[in-house]
Inverse folding.
């Protein structure tokens, strides 16, 4: 019995009715309460959009089409129910999040592919994820690492030969005024007259 039915019975009893009137009011209130309960249970058991159905009464949207609970014309699905097409299904998303219109949830944006010396951050001005340098003001990205560059050669290595400064790549070897490749070998010349680079990696 709901509140309205209880009030009606209370008023009737207060007016000294006949036994038949009291019984009729009690029966009506009980039946009405049972009907309300059944309606509430039916509403709680209805099916959301996208679920299988055979008739409209099974759907929360009261519209079953092509064996699925669907929204009516002029509406769109939103978290299991339907809303007007012009309305947004998502709540207000956080910066650099996107609204999944189908599921009605906020998801992070797809992060860009950044270099090893960069980090992904959210740009509040454009509301997008961007790559920003991760190295300090006095550093450079060398070989995927933030390091202090050589003042002469930068990310390359500095070599000295006969008072002359020159530069070789980080994976090369300084060899007698030249740069020996990674697969080569810088070997002492026979007779002790300096060094030479042997590209095949074999010293004589």
């Amino acid at each position: 019995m709901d509140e309205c039915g209880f009030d009606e019975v209370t008023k009737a009893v207060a007016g000294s009715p006949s036994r038949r009137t009291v019984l009729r009011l009690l029966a009506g209130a009980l039946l009405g309460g049972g009907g309300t309960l059944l309606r509430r249970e039916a509403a709680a058991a209805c099916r959301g959009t996208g679920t299988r159905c055979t008739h409209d009464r099974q759907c929360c949207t009261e519209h079953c089409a092509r064996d699925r609970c669907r929204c009516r014309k002029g509406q769109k699905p939103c978290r299991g129910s339907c809303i007007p097409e012009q309305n947004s299904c998502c709540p207000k998303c956080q910066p650099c999040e996107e609204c999944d219109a189908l599921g009605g949830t906020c998801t992070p944006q797809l992060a860009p592919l950044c270099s090893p010396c960069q980090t992904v951050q959210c740009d509040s001005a454009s509301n997008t994820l961007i790559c920003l340098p991760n190295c300090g003001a006095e550093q450079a990205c060398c070989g995927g690492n933030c390091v202090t560059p050589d003042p002469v050669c930068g990310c390359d290595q500095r070599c000295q030969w006969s008072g002359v400064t020159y530069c070789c790549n980080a994976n090369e070897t300084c060899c007698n005024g030249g740069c020996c490749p990674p697969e080569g070998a810088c070997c002492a010349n026979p007779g002790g007259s300096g060094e030479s680079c042997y590209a095949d990696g074999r010293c004589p």
